């Protein structure tokens, strides 16, 4: 198991800027931190081996080891606890519980579990419950009727300190035959609530080593929570449901939160005169259908009052919140490239990836390598082998095997989830953050994304080709101005998750004469958004189409960060074909295939790229990724979707087997002819075409392509092909336009 872990506060830094490293170790003593430049991270038996160089940095050294704890679970923290030190009160809300069988879930209240003091509206034994504690005695009153998962309920609890009367109300919003789920319970007690501390929604207060933490998380949606300073009557509770606090209840109302306001942010707006706004913790999901959503509007920005619910999860993590162990200011003359803080302690090791880009507005090379960090965030710490076994067994026709990382992630929810995982309540994960340790996304790890991308940096350094690196985060922030410093921009192997600013930047760069090399497959696929204020987090909703592990609820396809429709870019007006000429056609994870040249490769417009490669030569029947250059996830042309009409398919791979499946957005009726043996659409197209103002695009259309570059000590036809292309693409001589 991993006992030494860390992460950085940033992933992309410029010379002169500082990066913070945050480290946690379960082993006493000290650990070693060294800055290393990564040329190749592939230490698999068939790979080129780990190639790292220790950098002489003043941050290198030994540091005292300590364990750093992570708050897991999302909730709302409301300041000014003195306003909630109530003797009599009413708590009410609409809830949509997703795991009602889970015991001790907090809906809201000011309760300290460690001290058994305060009051809380909760879920116990599938029932709404009121819990009151005076510091020694705890009284609990349950509604008396079970709640069904994923149904809306109005729940309320009141306490009258003068009479000792506790009341719980539970009413389903959808009625079935009989009184299913409806109940009211009452009893009298002699105690009064003690001081429970801060007021929280979806969690309650607890203590860990003397520090305040949150526990007893609620799974599900909460809408329109209200707090009053006396025991309200049932008719008064009904009137307090309104989106405006009634005039005659304003002096009795402590807080009335409206979750439909400030949806992109982290603030929770109190519409009562007291203005007791709260803050979300660990990014619960917003822009979710509320209790009054009726299907008349599916876009939350058009009718936000129908999206006045927040979905909380007991396994949400945004920022691990660790303290900084070491800081490093990058020297002014530092070389752009791929770096890590390498941590070692005994037999434990861990890498914290980061990138050094040139200073803003400058370039040190003609070639820029665009690192797919948004896609890294989407995949990092994924639980697919355990919790989504269809990838390996159903899609790949092979048994799932587990390794130590799988088991570690399964046992450690504090490292967060990937966008391919499910929360404990079965809902899909739509937010992903970089402010946590990256497992499966660094040197000496899976040949997927980060490590596969180092096949490209390894090849560039072997060939002596100067290049700068920059990231998706940089591109999202700066747009086309970042790219215009470069004659040619090259992607990494799997740039799957893209925001609108990133897509537009690539389009504008190409239209202005930039040269673009797409080195991957399944690129520019899912539409994401970066948070408008929080660093290092993206959002994506898996809508009604695409090869996906989960699907968003109808009416919840629009992202909370920006209000944009998420899902496939193909369904959002900028198909991948517009960016690189091809789009996702098929996937399979057992065997890759080689390319064969097509007649178009002899066209004078493209023949130069095949210099040194014979006409009948098979291209890429070798490689460290599935044994070939065309494989894993592959793309094909589609003129109807935006492949330029003058594009040349210079090579193709078509000889795929039953393990490679046609993607589901391509076919519109279920049938069996969807694999490489009998479907002509399962293909990989290598494409070249010119762009306006002397630019050009080349697309490998395969994730596996880069894994073939180092074969035979870099002396092979895949390497030769790419070297021909890069040499011409960094040559500033304009490409002539194609003939009409």
Could you write a compact summary of the structure shown?
This protein is mainly beta. Helix content is 12%, strand content 32%. The model has no long low-confidence stretch (mean pLDDT 95).
List keywords for this structure.
mainly beta, eight-stranded mixed β-sheet, 3 domains, 740 residues, Rossmann fold, single chain, elongated
- The assigned CATH architecture of the largest domain is 3-Layer(aba) Sandwich
Backbone CA Rg: 28 Å
- Tell the overall outline: elongated
Distance between the termini: 61 Å
CATH homologous superfamily identity of the largest domain: Class I glutamine amidotransferase (GATase) domain
Structural class assignment: mainly beta
CATH topology of the largest domain: Rossmann fold
- How many β-strands, per DSSP? 43
**SS field, number of helical segments:** 11
